[in-house]
From TrEMBL:
Its EC number is 2.4.-.-. Keywords: Glycosyltransferase, Transferase. InterPro entries: Glyco_trans_4-like_N. GO terms for molecular function: glycosyltransferase activity. It comes from the Bacteria. This is Glycosyltransferase. Residues 37-182 form the Glycosyltransferase subfamily 4-like N-terminal domain. Pfam families: Glyco_trans_1_4, Glyco_transf_4. It comes from [Mycobacterium] nativiensis.
């Protein structure tokens, strides 16, 4: 079994059984309408936790666009000491605080203001680490180690992230727990696909996505039966858009024109909700994740692809190596266009290979369902609350 899914299941002790209701959660994070993966993750986790009967409130990292969600009980204004203090107090109104950690979303150098928020908590805290840097700067390391020291629990989403955290950082290893990234698992199988077979990459677009790798090899696929096409779906990342406009998207479209594959490469910049995105992923022949990163230990897009039962071709970033190791996809070198071409040819021309990968993805999918992930967070919260004295 893949290492990610091999961690021991949570069990409920007699002490935990004394709780008469699910704990309430206060979550600190970016949150919709902020267009980022962390906000999407938090919104989905909130829904999953609510489905267990837990009350969920969110302190949202402000970005200028107000949220209309009734779940949002306050907004954190980076750089404001008063807002930091108010954020801690809002989180203290719940039984347990969940801090979503990503570099760049909190104020101060390397997001060090989050330390003041954690320091102001009187309830147990769970820090969810979305990025574990392989080569952090000395200050990034010191900030993260200080976060780990103040938190009651650290959650990572892959075994490679857990290993990196335990080996490369000075932390209490007993605090580290692996809970997979959640995903929306479709309740129905995809309908029979018609038309041109589609290779799909989706997510917020910008440099580092590696779209150019797939465009480079599309010429070798043009003469296959059915004339496969490559669809790049998603809006340009807001920070990229603010700095460079649509330069990256325009450059990729021009690359396709120069390479003579413009008819086989399409860009869809529309925003998609969960249901629409799931339908799109289910309709594709395979998902391609050609990322530049050699360091990524968590990929929500990868998890979503597997949850939808689709074969995946990915460059060799750590989370892909881990999740695809049992046969749900193919991992290729970052600078190996021949391997990428061969992998796509196999999926497009050998139904047995594609079918076996899709079957393995469907086998893994239930473990990634938000219901399972939310239940793991509830049980983890109950453990910490059970360890603290006093009745509920």
């Amino acid at each position: 079994m893949n290492a990610l899914f091999a961690y021991p299941p949570f069990t409920v002790t007699k002490v935990e059984q004394r709780f008469s209701r699910p704990p309430s959660f206060g979550i600190l994070s970016t949150y919709p309408p902020t267009p980022c993966g962390l906000a999407t993750f938090t919104a989905a986790l909130s829904v999953g936790l609510s489905a267990t009967g837990a009350n969920v409130s969110v302190v949202r990292v402000a970005d200028g666009a107000p949220s209309r969600s009734s779940r949002v009980v306050g907004e954190l204004v980076n750089g404001s000491a008063a807002s930091v203090a108010a954020g801690s107090e809002a989180l203290n109104q719940s039984d347990i605080a969940v801090i979503q950690h990503e570099y760049g979303i909190y104020g101060g150098l390397d997001g060090e203001e989050v330390l003041d928020i954690i320091g102001g908590l009187s309830v147990p805290s769970i820090v969810v680490a979305h990025t574990i840097l392989k080569n952090p700067t000395p200050h990034q390391r010191s900030v993260f180690e200080a976060i780990a020291a103040r938190a009651d629990q650290l959650v990572v989403m892959s075994e490679v992230a857990s290993q990196r955290l335990r080996q490369d950082f000075t932390i209490d290893r007993r605090k580290v727990t692996t809970i997979p990234h959640g995903a929306a698992v479709p309740k129905t199988a995809p309908s029979k696909r018609s038309g041109r077979p589609t290779l799909l990459t989706w997510g917020l677009l910008g440099p580092g996505k590696g779209i150019e790798r797939v465009i480079d090899v599309m010429g070798a696929l043009q003469n296959l039966p059915g004339q496969p096409r490559y669809l790049v779906a998603g809006q340009t990342h807001p920070k990229v858009l603010a700095a460079d406009g649509e330069a990256y998207r325009d450059a990729r479209a021009e690359q396709a024109r120069r390479g003579g594959v413009a008819d086989s490469v399409a860009f869809d910049p529309d925003y998609r909700g969960v249901a629409s995105l799931v339908a799109l992923v289910q309709s594709c022949k395979a998902v391609v994740l050609p990322y530049d990163s050699t360091d990524q230990v968590t990929s929500g897009v990868l998890v979503d692809a597997i949850a939808c039962g689709r074969p995946v071709v990915a460059t060799a970033f750590p989370h892909a190596i881990e999740l695809l190791g049992t046969g749900a996809g193919i991992v290729v070198g970052h600078d190996d266009p021949d391997a990428l071409t061969a992998a796509l040819l196999r999926l497009l021309t050998d139904p047995r290979v594609a079918g076996a990968m899709a079957a393995e993805a469907r086998r893994l999918a239930p473990t990634m369902a938000w219901t399972s992930v939310a239940n793991a967070y509830v049980t983890l919260a109950q453990r910490h609350l059970a360890a603290r004295p006093g009745p509920r």
